[in-house]
Write a structure and sequence with these properties.
Elements: H1 5-17, H2 25-38, E1 42-47, E2 52-55, H3 57-63, H4 67-70, H5 81-95, E3 139-141, E4 147-154, E5 160-170, E6 176-183, H6 185-205, H7 210-224, E7 228-235, E8 241-246, H8 252-258, E9 261-262, H9 268-276, E10 280-282, H10 295-300, E11 306-312, E12 319-327, H11 335-362
Antiparallel strand pairs: 1-2, 1-6, 3-4, 4-5, 5-6, 7-8, 7-12, 8-9, 10-11, 11-12
Amino acid sequence: MSGTPAHREVGAASTAARPAAALTGAEMTALFQAVLDAGLDGVVVCDRRGHVLEWNAAAAEMFDLPRERVLGRAFDHLLAPAARDAFLRALAAAVRPSPRPAGAGRPGSATPLPHAREVPGVRAEERGVRSGQERPSDFSALTWGGARLEVVAVRAGGKPFPAELVVIPARAARPLVTVLVRDLTLSKRTETRLHGQRHILEMIATGSPLFAILEAICRLQDELLPGSVCSVLLLDATGRRLVHGAAPGLPPAYQRAIDGVEIGPDVGSCGTAAQTGETVIVADIATDPRWAPYRDLALAHGLRACWSTPIRDRRSGRVLGTFAVYPRTPRAPGAEELTLIAEASHLAGIAIGERAADDALRE
């Protein structure tokens, strides 16, 4: 018997008021791991000695180290030697007992966030990052009791990368620390790129020698494209030959061998780009027929690919020379590398064009 409507309403109300079953320990563990792994930044939980207790998916990808290989290891060993002392000082400050805030623990009272701590070994001017202040080169205490550091970290294969660490004391039965890790590679490269381009434009505006400007362009691209070397070749007065412009990373013997090369449809990457006015991508010098006359020369100097783009006058569009990237491994460029090449050739075009205009005025 289902009962009267009144009885049914009372039954429904009691069922709705009954609390749901609490999560089991296994469910809580699974939920905690899911939350950790959903983060875009690395999340590392360490004990008071800095040994890793937890390691999320983003950290595993960033350091190229799976969780099972890093648990129990000292986290500071994943940092460059010069960065380890700063991390250990921040760790010691984070696990140091702090005074219990007034009102903490009383029912209905709010526990205020702790004030910034004095981190041993950090100068006073390096503590506290406020709006409008430049971030210190080491680290600064944060208002919620943590510390921020910019360090060099090391991936599993030994490759260093710039990283930001935020070391946060965790509220737990034993002293624990959460370390948030952010890979700064992209932001640092963007910073280097913009600073370098600004410097080159200043050189152009102040009338620096052309060879110095072209060399600065090559050096900037060498830094932005690790594992590659860059060069600028200029069309001579006849418009038929390419002569040396700048190539600080290329072997001098190779520079001399290609200085004055005649352009043509099958003359390596640069000779072909100057002839056709189009970007030429050679992913493997060893097999590309356009490199047949110069293959042995390039391979002997460890040059395995060559991506060349025409440098054009920004007013007339006339080809003035070529900008080339020589990777040390056979490969084609990615989208970001193509953008860097286009920017470099554009800057070179401005520099060469402005110098030609100045020379014309003097005449």
